[in-house]
Write a structure and sequence with these properties.
The complex is a heterotrimer of chains A (about 170), B (about 400) and C (about 100). With about 170 residues, chain A is mainly α. Chain A has 2 domains: about 80 residues, Up-down Bundle (Four Helix Bundle (Hemerythrin (Met), subunit A)), CATH 1.20.120.1200; about 40 residues. In chain A, helix 1 runs antiparallel to helix 2 and helix 2 packs antiparallel against helix 3. In chain A, about 30% of the residues are buried. With about 400 residues, chain B is mostly helical. Chain B contains 14 helices and no strands. The termini of chain B are far apart. Chain C has a single domain, classed as Helix Hairpins (Orthogonal Bundle). In chain C, helix 1 runs antiparallel to helix 2 and helix 2 packs antiparallel against helix 3. The chains are: A mainly alpha (about 170), B mainly alpha (about 400), C mainly alpha (about 100). Chains in contact: A-B, A-C. Chains A and C meet through helix 1, helix 2, helix 3, helix 4 and helix 5 of A and helix 1, helix 2 and helix 3 of C.
């Protein structure tokens, strides 16, 4: 058992436990914090996959912006209180659905002939950020997705401001 | 000789050989060394804060024309130890209705965020925590974790002043991350890499001479990120009674206190690394201990500047803080980035003196243009107010008389 | 060292946890949190395959795809939370069962 495998197993355990707690905990703020822990676990997984740039971007974007946004939304909508499990049949159905989805994915994984074969990664170099930067702006590379995603961000910006702004004089 | 010249490498190699000699496999040795290094760095940083607290209180006292602590020990040097003893022995009072998990988690997150910054700073050419190739972005990410701690503290204290302080604090911190991240791109552009080791190593001429406007914006955003005056409305004693850490007592408040002072020093350390050249200086490559001394001197200069600003200028309001950031700093940072990228293409890195002069001229022009625009804006939008009130009508006096007549008006 | 299918099993388990969260919880914000978790597991999958198959060839498809998913997820959360807060102002409730009338 090498150190990397141990780190991966610890990280996987923490992430899965955080995910389960996020879906079971009653108080909303605690659920949001378990989500933050799960996102941290995903960032560590990115680090294990030698994608260091994406790991740090995950922390900055998801935990530094999206998680704080979710916390603010929870704090601003306190009227819609904490979850209560009135509908006690629902979690059985959702558990069944989740297990079916999990079983399907694992079945597809283990019937794939190369599923067990890829055990060693190819190289262990740190990620070359300059290559990502050049690829994003290369016309034969990924320039078009880059520009379209910037238009998407602009649309989201304008849309969320318009939806969230309070229009005075509107009837309730 | 090699111990004096390079103590960190010497001890590291000695520990490595010791652990390998015991028969532990290689990866585990590295893992154990990482853990020991992290523990030593965090411990050293926290012990160092004791000296910082004393320095700041003494210096603040002198700036404010008073003596500062002078009772405990000569020149009050044991004052922080007395403070520590008091904070350790105070009782923890948890408010009713506070969310226990979040209430106790918040100071830990705030402290962890500040200590996490020390992991990537190159203390000399061979002594650094780790050399990740995205060090500049890591700084922003760790700041984000600190903000998480503050919003949790504000919300979980079950106190409306804490909540208000928490909202304002997070608004300020999130806003000032933007110019900080934009101006961090300029040294990254010059050095060609995001790693802090590479940025410190690429400064034959310190970046403050090549991008002074960016350095100024980074300095101001760093003070705002820290929550120091003039941006200290997060803990404004006269307005919201200590803001988000009202309900904390004892060591939990002590953690916020230590995190505040340590963050100020860490911001100065980052500024010295990114813009002033870090550990570079004459003879710093052969004797890394000299690099450590140079870094310390540069950091001390920036830190003393921060402390002087803290005790000199008054506090800004929250709307002034927001307006300053979004209307002035962020457009200026974007314009600086564009201009610097343009000049970087015109005079690429091999040109030596011409490039530096061109960059300086571009920066000075940009600063003058921004100044001119602000003056024009202020002239056009200033409303004249009357300072002196108008002449009021005559006063009414009541003369006492035998028969109870009504008061007569004196004209 | 770490076989590929360990990463794929991790992402499968997290994905099913995300599905469970989305179906079970009544609060719209928590449903959004489950969707975020699912998007993250898609990222893990992409990067795992990229690492094990394409990292030497200089083909950056996996990394760029993961970055675009970041962008799309951030945009979706921003607009989604704006909608939820706006709906809360109208109906004073964020429970998904209560937001069931098309006319405000």
């Amino acid at each position: 058992m090498t150190v990397m495998q141990l780190i991966f197993l610890l990280n996987a355990a923490v992430t899965i436990i955080a995910g389960i707690m996020m879906s079971r905990v009653r108080r909303l703020l605690h659920a949001a914090l378990w989500l933050v822990l799960a996102l941290f676990g995903v960032a560590v997984t990115f680090g294990l996959l030698e994608a260091s740039f994406l790991a740090i971007v995950q922390v900055v974007v998801y935990i530094g912006a999206i998680a704080i946004l979710i916390l603010f939304a929870i704090m601003l909508t306190r009227g819609g209180t904490d979850d209560t499990y009135d509908n006690s049949k629902r979690w059985i159905i959702s558990l069944v659905v989740a297990l079916i989805a999990l079983g399907g994915i694992l079945l597809a994984l283990f019937t794939w002939p190369q599923g067990q074969a890829l055990t060693t990664p190819l190289t262990a170099a740190q990620q070359d950020i300059g290559a990502i930067g050049i690829a994003l702006l290369d016309p034969e590379g990924y320039l078009i997705p880059f520009e379209i995603s910037s238009i998407l961000l602009l649309a989201a910006l304008v849309g969320s401001i318009y939806v969230g702004i309070e229009h005075k004089g509107e009837e309730k | 000789m090699s111990f004096i010249a390079d103590p960190v490498s010497f001890i590291t190699n000695w520990l490595n050989s010791l652990l390998s000699g015991w028969g532990i496999p290689d990866m585990w040795v590295q893992f154990i060394m990482f853990i020991i290094g992290a523990g030593l760095l965090a411990f050293g940083a926290m012990i160092f804060t004791i000296g910082l607290i004393w320095l700041e209180r003494k210096l603040g006292g002198r700036i404010q024309d008073r003596i500062g602590p002078n009772r405990i020990g000569p020149w009050g040097v044991f004052q922080p130890i007395a403070d520590m003893l008091k904070i350790f022995t105070k009782e923890y009072i948890t408010p009713i209705g506070a969310d226990i998990l979040l209430y106790n988690l918040a100071p830990i997150l705030a402290m962890a965020a500040v200590l996490g910054l020390w992991a990537v700073i190159p203390l000399s050419s061979t002594a650094y925590g780790t050399n990740i190739n995205v060090g500049a972005l890591y700084l922003i990410g760790i700041g984000a974790i600190g903000e998480l701690g503050i919003i949790l503290a504000g919300f979980s204290s079950n106190n409306k002043y804490a909540l208000l302080g928490g909202y304002r604090a997070v608004a300020q911190l999130l806003s000032y991350e933007v110019p900080m991240a934009i101006t961090l791109l300029i040294p990254v552009m010059f050095a060609g890499s995001m790693g802090l080791n590479d940025i410190a190593g690429a400064q034959k001429v310190a970046f403050i001479f090549q991008a002074p406007v960016a350095a100024l914006i980074f300095f101001i955003a760093g003070i705002a990120e820290n929550g120091r005056a003039p941006f200290d409305l997060m803990e404004a004693d006269s307005e919201i009674v200590a803001g988000y850490n009202i309900e904390y007592s004892g060591l939990k408040f002590g953690m916020y206190y230590v995190a505040d002072f340590l963050h100020a020093f860490t911001s100065a350390l980052l500024f010295a690394t990114i813009f002033l050249g870090g550990w570079r200086g004459p003879g710093a490559e052969q004797y890394p201990i000299l690099g450590f001394v140079y870094l310390f001197v540069k950091t001390a200069v920036v830190y003393l500047l921060t402390v002087t600003i803290r005790f000199t200028v008054p506090r800004l309001r929250i709307d002034q803080v927001m307006a300053f950031n979004w209307k002035y700093l962020t457009p200026l940072a974007l314009a600086t980035l564009l201009v610097t990228a343009l000049v970087d293409k015109i005079a690429p890195a091999g040109q030596g003196l011409l490039r530096i002069i061109l960059l300086l001229v571009a920066n000075v022009l940009l600063f003058l243009l921004a100044d001119r625009l602000v003056t024009l804006y202020r002239k056009n939008h200033q409303k004249l107010r009357k300072v002196v009130s108008e002449f009021r009508p005559v006063p009414v006096t009541i003369r006492p008389s035998v028969a109870a007549d009504e008061p007569e008006v004196q004209s | 060292m770490i076989p590929l299918y360990w990463f794929l099993i991790l992402s499968a388990v997290l994905f099913s946890i995300g599905i469970y969260t989305v179906i079970t919880r009544r609060n719209t914000i928590t449903i959004l949190m489950g969707v975020e978790l699912m998007l993250n597991t898609a990222n893990i999958n992409l990067l795992a395959f990229w690492r094990y198959l394409y990292i030497d060839t200089g083909n950056l498809d996996g990394v760029i795809f993961a970055l675009i998913i970041f962008v799309a997820a951030a945009a979706e959360v921003a607009v989604g939370l704006g909608l939820i807060i706006s709906a809360y102002r109208r109906r004073q409730s964020v429970v998904a069962n209560d937001l069931d009338a098309l006319k405000g």
